[in-house]
Amino acid sequence: MGKEEFTLSSRIRSATFLLGTLLLVPLQARPQDAAQPPPRRPRIGLALAGGSAYGLAHVGVLKWLHEHRIPVDAVAGTSMGGLVGGLFATGHSPSQIEDFVSAIDWNQALQSSPPFAQLSFRRKEDQRAYPGTIELGYRRGRGLSFPSAFSSGHGVSLLVSRFAAPYGDMDSFSDLPADFRCVSVDLVKAKTIVFSKGSLPQALRATMSIPGVFAPIEQDGMLLVDGGLLNNLPVDVARQMNPDLVIAVALDPPTPDINQIKGIFGVARRTLSVMIADNERRNLGLADLVIMPDLKGLTAGDFPNYVEFIRRGYQAAEAKRLLLEKLSVSPAEYARYLDSRDARRRTEQIRPLDVVIEGKLAPLRRLALLKEVAADPTQSVDRFKLEEELTKIVGAGRFDSASYTLFSRDGHEGIKLAFREKDHGPPFVKPSFLLMASPDEGLRFGAGARVTFLDAGGPASEWRTDLSIGVYNRLGTEYYYRLKGGKWFLAPSLGYEESEQPLYQDSRRVSEFTNRRIGGAFDLGYAFGRFQELRMGWTLSRERILVASGPAFGSTVKGRASTIRFKYSYEGQDAPNVPTHGLRINLQGHYGLDWPGVKEKFGLADALVSYARPLPNRFILIGQSRGGFTRDHANLSNSFELGGPLRMSSLARSQSLGSRYYYGGASLLRGVSNPSLSIFGRFYALLAYEAGAAWSATHVPLPRHSATAGLMGETQFGVVLFGVAYGDRGEGKVIFRLGRFF
Fold first, then answer.
1. Most C-beta atoms within 10 A of its C-beta, which of 12, 22, 298, 421?
2. Which pTM value belongs to this model?
């Protein structure tokens, strides 16, 4: 359909709509005999299109209709149109919908997994060690597979439950404060599904399941995704609700520049948009009136800019004032309409006597959840606390998402908590990649993976194995056993490690040695919760240090090593890669009983403190301090090292070695990518200053200084840094690294 053709058809529809309303309204205005019933106002239906953040413009249209006393009796929506329509259909006024939208943390609602702060301590360890977002799993019959979408949809599930939870058992969506339908697509039978009854939260979650972005909903043998694939503007569905006329709110995104389409993701996005636009055009002709907001300058991911979207929707309705005002009713009649809506609205506060849990929760976890949710049946459910508990359970790693609905049976109020297991595991495989490029060592590559079996041998117990090759060669396995499913745990482990370490004299590389270790450890520890862990144990290994190049080529130090170790960790930051706020502490100590070439017993201590805080104008400040010491001995002189990106960036890797060290660094980052939607990562401009030294002599040397400037980005494979570093002795270098930093 060309532009002129569309404009002509719009004019014809507008003329038809005007004629119809002019005929309908005067008939209603004629004096009536006393025996005749009062005139019936036209039943108005609304069709709301999908379109990610563009769909927030629907709020502005509803706001205009409300201010001009135009009652809406039936709503059909797809995707974001379904969400806004669902809010309206559950009795929320446009101002309440606007307040609801303004309170949403969109980044949290749309991100791929629960917030880092809500993850269990073990999952935080995984994110630190393997900073990418990719997670694979293994299932019998399917083998190794990816999850069904980039995001599990947990944030969206909670978002929907916040307003739709009271409507989890509807005989008909016509019983809502406004007659409602939403559209999804069944991938199994490749057909449109119109939700008209059942669980409203489930229906809304299905209509918002953008393929590849949010996990589909499995229900009654169907695999349900976003209805926009086949019916993005459900005017035909609105027609089936028997309105006298239908107003369609269509979303026509700006035509992209050809350069925006190029590339695999650009082509995929545009292909989907073209398919959706085609099915929209077929339905536009079924509407009596079309409202089309001007969306120029806005993007589909611009969720925080909701105020502008609402303004655009309001303006689009205002542009149709002459037609829409014909539908306005008197203040008294509009008040009766609002009263009728309120009468069908269900309470959002309940005191649950019954709690139904769907999902395989460990007994202790189930009891703890019941205690948090329904400890006092005389008190209403604390929604914030409930969602936090559900997110903590999802953050343990087994479940994809959680949701809740409210119900009333036989006079008893209750709440149903549903947990959806991940469809691709356990066990889970988390891969990682490390790529480093520097003038000192050229290009170095490494790859690795962590395999985790959950609930192995008991609730909250795990068996995880690490394998890495390339920059670091390692094979290790640990069995983490929670005693009686409680806080205390045992953690035996075995492992083999091999790494190469250069040796420098000032700035000149003079040698290289290889460290090899094979052995095991046994720890006893206490898991405080999501943020802290304390463990103490014993290690036993065979150490071998081989000089691989230089004057001392071939010389070897080897023998038995055993230590008693202690470790305390506190994870209070909000992200593993680029935190914006919070504190992180890592303290560890070893008491050496045996060490190759060292006859005396010795102690070793190492500490790390990292702090992050946000600053105005999208700036972030990250500070980090480290320090450690051990006995002065030739065979312990490589205990600590400095050098490499954001560990004294102007120095080469391990350029500074010693039995003692100190380090302090401050990094200032400023977001340079679109802050609206970060499910695919963020990018920052980086300025960093560092000072530190490592040494083995008795005196404390003056610190070396380093400054770094560059671009840092969070990707699905980890954090990438490209920049330049300059040192206090004139060292300058270009650095590139993919991996982890802070």
1. 298
2. 0.86
- Strands 442-454, 412-421: parallel, antiparallel or unpaired by DSSP? unpaired
| Amino acid, single-letter form, for residue 423 | D
Amino acid at 335: A
| DSSP SS3 for 540 | strand
Q: What are phi and psi of 13, to 5 degrees?
A: -60, -45
What letter does residue 595 receive in the DSSP assignment? B
For residue range 354-373, what is the model confidence (pLDDT) as tens digits? 888 998 888 888 888 888 87
For 3, residues 6+ apart whose C-beta sits below 8 A from its C-beta are none
Contact present, 604 and 152 (Cβ < 8 Å):
no
Give the dihedral of Cα atoms 388, 389, 394, 398; nearest 10 deg: 170
- Angle, vertex CA 419, rays to CA 113 and CA 392, nearest 5: 50
Q: Hey, what are 276's tokens? A: 């959706």
SS3 content of the chain, % helix, strand, coil (to 5): 25, 40, 35
Question: Residue 8: is its pLDDT beyond 50?
Answer: no
Residue 217 in contact with residue 209, Cβ under 8 Å?
Answer: yes
Q: For residue 272, name the pLDDT band (cuts at 50, 70, 90).
A: low
Residue 30 has pLDDT above 50, yes or no: no
Q: Is 167 helix (H, G, I), strand (E, B) or coil?
A: helix
β partners of residue 467: 449, 475
User: Considering Cα of 130, then 133, then 136, then 137, what sign does the dihedral take?
Assistant: positive
Distance between CA atoms of residues 327 and 317, nearest Å: 13
Is the Cβ–Cβ distance between 252 and 299 less than 8 Å? Answer: no
Instruction: Tell me which long-range contacts 718-722 makes (C-beta under 8 A, separation of at least 24).
Output: 718/131, 718/132, 718/432, 718/433, 718/434, 718/577, 719/131, 719/577, 719/578, 721/645, 721/646, 721/686
Question: What is the tens place of the pLDDT at every residue in 558-594?
Answer: 899 999 999 999 999 999 989 999 999 999 999 999 9
- Give the DSSP letter of residue 530: S
| CB contact at 8 A, 561 and 538 | no
| Alpha-carbon gap, residue 591 to 145, rounded angstroms | 44
Per DSSP, 327 falls in state: G
- pLDDT in the model for residue 514: 86
Q: What is the pLDDT of residues 168-188, one digit of tens each?
A: 989 999 999 999 999 999 999
CA distance 167 to 669: 45
Alpha-carbon distance 382 to 346, whole Å? 17
Please say whether the beta carbons of 102 and 306 come within 8 A.
yes
Could you tell me which of 280, 281, 289, 244 has the C-alpha nearest to residue 13? 289
- Distance in angstroms (rounded) separating the CA atoms of residues 737 and 438: 9
Burial environment of residue 183 by CB neighbours within 10 A (0 to 12, 13 to 18, 19 or more): buried
- Please identify which residue in the block is written with the tokens 């209603």: 28
- Residue 27 above 80 pLDDT? no
Q: How does 336-351 read in b/e, with b if 16+ C-beta sit within 10 Å?
A: ebbeebeeeebebebe
Q: pLDDT tens digits for 96-134?
A: 999 999 999 887 888 878 899 999 999 999 999 998 888
The enclosing H or E element of 63 equals helix 57-67
For residue 724, which of 713, 714, 737 has the smallest C-alpha distance?
A: 737
DSSP 336-348: HHHHHHHHTPPPS
Q: Which residue has the higher pLDDT, 259 or 611?
A: 611
State residue 259's pLDDT score: 64
Cα(474)–Cα(707) distance, integer angstroms: 32
Half-sphere exposure of 610 (CA within 13 A, CB side): 22
